[in-house]
Structure formats: C-alpha cells, structure tokens
Amino acid sequence: MPEDVDAGIKEEASRKIPTSLKVTLLEHQSIGLSWMRNQERGMHRGGILADDMGLGKTIQAMALILGGVEEAGREQGAPILSTLIVAPLALVHQWVTELEEKTVKGTLRVCVHHGPKRGKSSEDLEGYDVVITTYNLVASEFPSSINNSTPSDVKESILRKSDSTGPLFRYKWGRVILDESQMIKNHETRVSIACCHLEAKYRWCLSGTPIQNGVGDMYPLFKFLHVPEISDFTTFNAEILIPIVRNRPHEAIRRLQAILKFILLRRKKTTRINGKMLIQLPARTINHLSIPLSPFERTFYDGLKEQMRCSLKVMFSNSRTGPRVTNVLAMLIRLRQACCHVLLCKNFVGIKDIAEALGYKNEQGKEEVGEKARDESWKEDDLALRMEMLSVGKARRSRTCSVCASELSDYIDGTLCEECIHIIGLTMDEPSTETCQRSTKIKKMLQVLESMRETYPKDKCIIFSQWTSLLDLVEGPVRKAGFSFERYDGSMSSVKREQALESFRTDPSKKVLLISLMSGSVGLNLTSANHVILLDIWFNPAVEEQAIDRVHRIGQTKPVFVTKITIRDSVEDRIIWMQKKKRSLAEGALKGTDVVQSGGFTLKELIELLE
C-alpha cells in the first residue's frame, strides 16, 4: 500500500483546516485530514487510517468531525451529522479530554454513552455532535439472537422489534469511528458482529496495527466498512485466505492490495514527506536482556516442561484427535509464567502436588514432615526441594490426606486436609517480599530501576506485564526498594484508573507505573515516562509495540529507554522467533510483499514451542 497520497490531496491539505481546532496540525496530519474528506465524498465513504502509533490518528479524526460540524453550521437547517466513537473503556476519558482541550469551547456537544446513567432510548442521543461509547457496551446493546448465520431480513426484523436492541442500534449515525479497530479482528465474536451492524453514512477504522495475528484480521474491517468487493467471509476466504494456505501468496496479496489502495492510508514514523521525516521524536533504545534462571528456577522449569511433554504424549495416545490448540496454549502459558515467577504456577502445580511429591518421597516420614512444617525456617529453600521432586515422579491420588492420611471431607477439592494446609503453610496467597525478590526477572527489574534512579533521578518508568498476578508479586519489591508507584489494570474502575494516571503524570515522587499489557497497550498517552520495562513477552509483537508507543510518541521530550527481559534457553526464545514471523507477516500484507500464512499458528508450530 502506498504510504503517500496524491498531489491534489497535498495541495488541499494546506486549506480547510477547521477554525475551531485549537492546535496546529502537522503536515502529515493535514494530508490525512484531506484524504479522509475525499474518502467521505467518494464511493467508499470511509476507510482505515492506519498511521503508526503516536502519529496522531485521534487529532485527524477530531479535525474531520469539526470540519463536518462547521460545514453543517453554514447551511441553514442542515441536520446534525452525529459521530459515534467506539473505543476501549480506557480511552473514553482520553477522548473527552482531547475534545475539551483541543477544540473551541461550545463547538461540539459531546455525550458519553456509558455507565448506569446512560440514555435508554435513541431520543436521548439526539442533539449531540459526538457520542462516545465502548466496545463492550455496543455488544451489550446488540440482540443476542443475531449471529453471522442469521439471514439479513431476520436481522433487520430483530433489530427493529426486539426489546433487547439498545439505543445505539436505533439511531442512524452520520459517522461511526472505531478507535483501535483491531478490537473487532475476530469476526465471530459478539462485539465484532455488533459493530458491523451499526447504521451510519460514513465508517472509519483507526488502528496502528490492523493486522496482528494474520491477514484474516482484515476481514472484519472490510465487513464493517461495507467494502462491496469482499464484505462476506465466503468471498474473503476464497480470494484471500485459501490462496495463501495453498502457497499462492502473490495472488492473494495482489487482490488484497487492489482493495487496500482505495481504503487505507498508512504512514510510519520513518515515512518522509519532501525528504523530511514526518516527526522528529527523541531516540528510542531497546535493550534486550536475556538472562539465565537460577538453579532452583531451572529445576522447576525443566520439571514442569517434562510434565507438559508427558501430558502431550498421553493426549496423543489416548485421543483420536490428539491434543487441541487450547491444550497446548494452556501449557505454553504455564511455561511462560514459570519464566517470570514460580508462584504464578501455584494453581497449576499447587499445594497438593508439592505435598504429594513430599509424601511420595517419604512415605515413612509424615510425622517428621509435620514437625518440619512448624519450623519457621522452612521457607523457599525447602520449597525448591519439593518443586524439584515434581520432575522425579507422579504422586499417588487418593481420598485421604497425602500428608497425614486422614480422610478428606467431600467438599475438599484436593489431596490435603485443612489442618495440613494450615500447618504446611504453602498457600502462597500472600508471598513475602523476600520470596518475590527471588525471581530472577524481578531481581533484574530492580537492577534496571536502581540504574535509572542513579543515572536519571528525575525520570519515570512504566513496567508492563500481561499478568496482574505478576504485578501483585512486583509491588512488594518495588515498594521495599523505595520507589513510589501507581498501578493501572483492568480490575480497576475507570475512575480509579484515571486517578492513577493523573497521579503518575503530575506527582514528581511517583516514579513507577505498574500496568497490565492488555489494559495499557492501546491508546493511552504516557509521555510523562521515558523508561519502559517489559517483564514478559506476548505472542503478538504488535501488542508490545503498542505498549512502547504509549511512551515514544508525539509529546515525548526525552530519549526513551526500553528494557525487554527474557529468559535464556526457555520457551521465550521460541516466542521471539514467533514474533519475528508475525511482524514479517503483518508488514508484508500491508506493503504488498509475500505473506507466508493467513492467520494464527498451527498446532504443530505451537507444539514446537514446547521443544
């Protein structure tokens, strides 16, 4: 896809900037605005703005909205062109703030359609220039009886007559904008189906990463945009996906590009206009630290990995179909968690397995076990020994306590009685700071933070993890090391999240923000920090790039330092290889070069990650 637009659009870009926009658009943003205007005038009536993260897709969309409002204002009796913005919950407040701060007061009438006090009828949405809502709310207001196989005439009847049809689907929008439109990439999900049924004159997708898992991610966007050539899955599958699977990528990409060149505009941070870079951002340095596990962690990891392999063999031998993708993914998650901290695996390799391993090795010594359990010195060193036993043999299963041999109550789901659970003290629900610091990754993370404090005492750092349970384990060591921090994750209310972000941005003493990867990797502006630590890696490199670009974006004034911590000789090495493959796939599809596959990874490839 060309990363530029024709000369006519460039010339127009110098004109028609909305007067009610309080900020000056950069040159590429002015060009993008003109392209969007031309798209709305043409047959496609919308498109995909796929600029790199941090290049200002939001401000271009705002300028488009303002332009429409100003034009309508000049025409006597012209109807309001209401724009519905669908965004992740985390970005709703950011949209409101941007609209308030960057437009002339009173220009736009804005409504947030979310929460218990939201409007219950389409009349409640009338009179607003902009309505902002969330993907989850769009899905909740869409009748559950409709799916992809429902005939069109039946869908229309249900949407008109069903009591479960919410106001978002009873209103004809002038424009619908899907912010972070990769949220609908699975065309079979309720949220994807719902978004595609929103009624609008103009339709837009904003996403810096329209392809995350594979070319198949593009289909829901085409469906939402009502691309006539390929808006049904049968056609998309026949013309795009099947040729790729059958090793005819040139044919598929040629067809894909024939569509994208009319509906997609993508500029990268490295794109040049008249020989100049689009934006001049501070330097970004990525430091990949590949570190070894401690002897205890290595023993645990290898034992867990061997257990996974044995489970796979059983699945292959006992099932006509063999293991499923979900089985293998679950195993991979456990191995990835073991790379971060053994306590993340407590629900998989838990109390019962540790105690059973103990009993299995010492059938005659249960009384000694009980005595030792009462000793305060029985901490993680002994836990290491018990974890090591997991790789030696499988303990027996029974309806008696595997430590004291007492009969278990029917309601107990496990192999330890309540008394032994209490005595042994292996619940690990509230691990000590000392225990948490024994994680190799957490130790390295603290070293990176200490280095930042010594070298750049005024700087701030964001620590990303995809597991909130790992963030739980990080809190204690970070606090003990003397760092004041805030936390941001999906379990928090939107109000609490905004309070945490505001505190981190404005309080100089708040040096660290702990943030869950999926909650904080999209849309947020976190330029108050310039250090990033990635504690664990995700299959999809686009998610990591999104996380980094929360910091490395327009508004950043300092050099950005990214530290990626991975474990040597582990499943993480294989995931890095997978990331490179996915990155090549996404870039190839958007640029028009070869693509090797159509979507996710095969079961065979996932199993290879366990090797």
Automatic annotation (TrEMBL):
GO terms for biological process: double-strand break repair via homologous recombination. Transmembrane segments: none annotated. GO terms for cellular component: cytoplasm; nucleus. One of its GO terms (molecular function) is ATP-dependent activity, acting on DNA. CDD domains: DEXDc_SHPRH-like (cd18008), SF2_C_SNF (cd18793). Residues 38-228 form the Helicase ATP-binding domain. Pfam families: Helicase_C, SNF2-rel_dom. Residues 441-607 form the Helicase C-terminal domain. Gene3D superfamilies: P-loop containing nucleotide triphosphate hydrolases, Tandem AAA-ATPase domain. InterPro entries: Helicase_ATP-bd (IPR014001), Helicase_C-like (IPR001650), P-loop_NTPase (IPR027417), SNF2-like_sf (IPR038718), SNF2/RAD54-like_C (IPR049730), SNF2_N (IPR000330), SNF2_RAD54_helicase_TF (IPR050628). Keywords: ATP-binding, Hydrolase, Nucleotide-binding. This is SNF2 family N-terminal domain-containing protein. It comes from Piptocephalis cylindrospora. The lineage of its organism: Eukaryota, Fungi, Fungi incertae sedis, Zoopagomycota, Zoopagomycotina.
